[in-house]
From TrEMBL:
Residues 510-731 form the PPM-type phosphatase domain. It comes from Streptomyces dangxiongensis. Residues 165-317, 345-489 form the GAF domain. This is GAF domain-containing protein. GO terms for molecular function: phosphatase activity.
Amino acid sequence: MTAERERRLTSEVRGSGAVRDTDEDLSLLFGTSTALFASMAGPAHVLEAANPAFFAAIGGGGRERTGVPLGELMPELTTQGFIRLLDQVYRSGERHVGRDVRVVLGVGEDAREAYFDFTYEARRDTGGNVIGVRMIGVETTQVKHARRLAAEQRALLEQIARQAPLPDVLDGMCRTIEELCPEVLVSVLLADADGRHLRHGAAPSLPDFYNQAIDGIATGEGVGSCGTAAHRRQNVIVSDITGDPLWDDFRDLAGQAGLAACWSTPILARDGRLLGTFAMYHRTPRAPQDTDLALARVFADTAALAIERHQAEQARRAADAREKAARDDLAFLLAASTSLAGRLDETQTLKRLATLASPALAPLAAVDVMEAGRVQRVATAAPTEDAREAVAAHTPAHDAEDDPVARVLASGVTEVARRTPTGPGPWRDLGVTGYICVPLVDRGRPFGALTLLSTGETPFDGHRVALAEELARRAASAARNARQYTQRAALARDLQTGLLLPDLPDVPGAQLAAFYHPAGEGLEIGGDFYDVFARGDGSWGFILGDVCGRGAVAATTTALVRHTARAVAPLFDDPVDVVKAVDKALNDRHVHQNNGFVTLVYGHLAPAPDGLTMSLVRAGHTLPLLLDTDHRVDTVETSGGLLGIGIPPRLTARRLTLRPGESLLLYTDGITECRTTGTEQYGDTRLAEALASAPRRPTATDIVRTVAEDVRGFVDGGNVEDDQAALVITAGEPAPGRD
């Protein structure tokens, strides 16, 4: 050995000794600090010194020794690249800093995941030569877990904010905790609305048989950890299930599931309501640390937020569903009312009732009414024609003890059953499973019944019964209105028929035609009238007029005018005198009968060699129109005031001759004043144009048909607001051989 080499070795030994002394001082300085310190020597990284925190972090026990290479003491570091990092620092002398580095410490079942902030720096002798590596670090596992916990909780809160399904949120929460604490099995139970039972919410790692067994457990003292925690509204810690009396009834079940400890935290709403329980199970007996209890509180609060949000959403949806159901019911009833009100025939109304009820309320529906003391089935509805025929063919029994229809007609009370109706019927063939029988009532007395038949598993509920009763009530009202309408229409028709000529008479040398169209639905007697009658001397009287008003008073006034004119016409040759007599009769009415005025055109006509001679009077009425043989239309001018107003009218007669082929049109203002859907009136001009458009050499019937069709085309199917009447007199050709 040369002197130079001896000097260098001596220097290295002295230097390494000095460094060793420094590292020992550092080890003492760190002492029991939570900071980790280790000092390694040579290229083999022999552990020379370390503080207790280092040994605790790497597993303690058999690893608490020095004088061995680190790779031998902790072989798992080799595969994770940490020995290679030590080699690099040792060779280069450059420091290496790691932040939040993941390390798996130990092997097999004893392995654990940990995170560290650490620094590898070279150890140098006094001459600056690298003689080893020093490690200083801090374990950040808890910080890492806390950050991860915060991140996972934020993710759960985001799920809750997005209204993710509650099972997904709870399952994700359980899995998050189990990933953070691998030795923990998490369960969430949800409280019933009454808080007396707990239902399975989420427990991804517990056995299915265990979850099924505790699903629905009661809340109460001694019902395991969860039932007791729910009952007490406070944490229940069971560190060893095998010896705790709270688990007497569930100990065998826990043993089968391999559970040894259970810590349960009640999940409470902000108002103190019980929402459920949050439980952390362990497979070995264990008492919780403060961090465990804090973790339970955090996630119990998170679960409470999720459950409350879910319940609020469920309540909102339920409210929306109820509101929608109410809107649907209202829409159904409004549509039904509109449909039923549009049927002005009682039988059609009841048939419509059956089609409205099926399938909206039930698959099968039937309507029965009492007629002449017997029950008659008047309407049925079903999904198929065969089913409808089967329901239609069934005749309800007359004995109230045997048939629900007879019972309901007798009692006037709805009958509901979850079985087939009593008495014979096609119930089995139709698959009937229940029925509702609702009375149709008019003035407190049932006159019919609506029967609904179910064929499925779903029974009739209170909502369906109430809807059926409301539909029946509206249908009964519509049927009553239809019946009254029919009666009133028949009465009005009969009275109107008595006021109008059934047929126009045959007048020598003349053609006569007329039409009458009542306003509205024909429920009231109109005030328009016309008449043609013989005067007894070979001449004829004709009249067309309009009585102010409608109804019974208008009918009596019309009769008064017609009969007065007929009575006095043979007595007066001048039509002015006849009209004055009519005016006197109107003014002589009782004050309670005098409800308005009358307008009319009255005249006499007689056949003549050159046509028809006429003398006519106009009393406040529309001007007659004359159609000549060249299809020119002119008005027949004559003045005269209203009748029946107490003021003697000034009347003048207009005399004219209708030549063969010429026509006189008398009409009421209901024709000229009718309107379209807008504001335009038919008017005098259009009437004149329609009259001129009649065929060449038209008959009286041709003219009536032409005018009536033009008016109908103008109103386009709409209801007219006033009666319409017209009378056409056409002069015929003179008889052959007549001078």
